[in-house]
């Protein structure tokens, strides 16, 4: 018995609610029970609960814009890095995330393409075929790590060389047979041109576009987000 008394003293004291009627001495542990007793036994209306007004929320549109731009920019940089490294798994995860972003912004065609890729992964293609689709999306012409490009960009390079060869034939010599012959020999012709340029020591500037103010823009966005 002494142990129970000492234990009860250690427990926090429970709040009680006294009846509002002056002639009533009853107390209640639960507030709804007290209100029901007062309404039935004494005819007292229940007390209205006081609702504290919420503090007005301060809108910081600049902060939200900076966070959205920084988050979206990092996702796009992650996708570009996945292409350069030839990481098919990371690129598929990027498409899964941007499916909802495209749909929310009204880009239904892009959202449909991303959704179709997910459908191929889950049902339309076998695991073997989807493995080929996932990893057969990159081309490396220069060799080395981080030098991959997408197959679509490689196709644009081939189209550029093909158009130049067709244009060199002249309009008077342009026929269906000549165009077909050029398209069939485009691979060998491109290798021959690249080999000749390498032997002659002719270098070509890279078509990669760099932003000189990228470092400064990153620090300005970082200050806007973290120094508010």
Write the SSE topology:
Layout: H1 2-10, E1 17-18, E2 27-28, H2 31-41, H3 61-85, H4 88-104, H5 108-124, H6 127-135, E3 138-139, E4 149-150, H7 151-169, H8 176-184, H9 186-200, H10 214-226
Helix pairs in contact: 3-4, 3-10, 4-5, 7-8
Oligomer: single chain
Largest sheet entry: 2 strands, antiparallel
Morphology call? elongated
- Low-confidence segments: 6-12
First and last CA, distance:
60 Å
Instruction: Tell me the helix content.
Output: 55-70%
Give me the side-by-side strand order of the main sheet: 1-2
Task: Output the structural class.
Answer: mainly alpha
Number of helices: 10
Output the helix-strand order: HEEHHHHHEEHHHH
Q: Please provide the count of β strands.
A: 4
Mean pLDDT: 78
What is the CA-based Rg, rounded?
36 Å
**What share of residues are in beta strands?**
under 5%
Pfam families: DUF6589 (PF20231)
InterPro entries: DUF6589, Znf_C2H2_type
Domain C2H2-type: 19-42
Organism: Clytia hemisphaerica
Identify the notable features of this structure and list them briefly.
228 residues; mainly alpha; two-stranded antiparallel ribbon; 4 strands; C2H2-type domain-containing protein; DUF6589; Znf_C2H2_type
């Amino acid at each position: 018995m002494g142990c129970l008394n000492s234990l009860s003293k250690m427990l926090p004291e429970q709040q009680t609610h006294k009846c509002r009627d002056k002639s009533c001495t009853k107390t209640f542990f639960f507030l709804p029970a007290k209100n029901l007793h007062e309404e039935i036994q004494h005819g007292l209306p229940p007390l209205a609960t006081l609702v504290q007004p919420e503090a007005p929320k301060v809108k910081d549109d600049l902060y939200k814009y900076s966070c959205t731009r920084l988050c979206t920019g990092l996702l796009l940089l992650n996708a570009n890095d996945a292409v350069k490294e030839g990481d098919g798994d990371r690129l598929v995860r990027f498409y899964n995330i941007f499916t909802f972003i495209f749909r929310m912004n009204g880009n239904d065609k892009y959202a449909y393409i991303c959704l179709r890729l997910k459908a191929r992964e889950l049902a339309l293609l076998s695991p073997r075929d989807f493995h080929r689709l996932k990893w057969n999306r990159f081309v490396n012409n220069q060799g080395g790590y981080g030098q991959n490009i997408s197959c679509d960009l490689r196709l644009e390079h081939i189209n550029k060389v093909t158009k130049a060869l067709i244009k060199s034939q002249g309009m008077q010599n342009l026929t269906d047979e000549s165009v077909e012959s050029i398209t069939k020999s485009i691979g060998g012709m491109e290798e021959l041109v690249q080999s000749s340029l390498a032997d002659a020591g002719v270098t070509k500037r890279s078509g990669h576009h760099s932003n000189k103010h990228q470092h400064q823009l990153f620090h300005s966005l970082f200050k806007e987000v973290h120094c508010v």
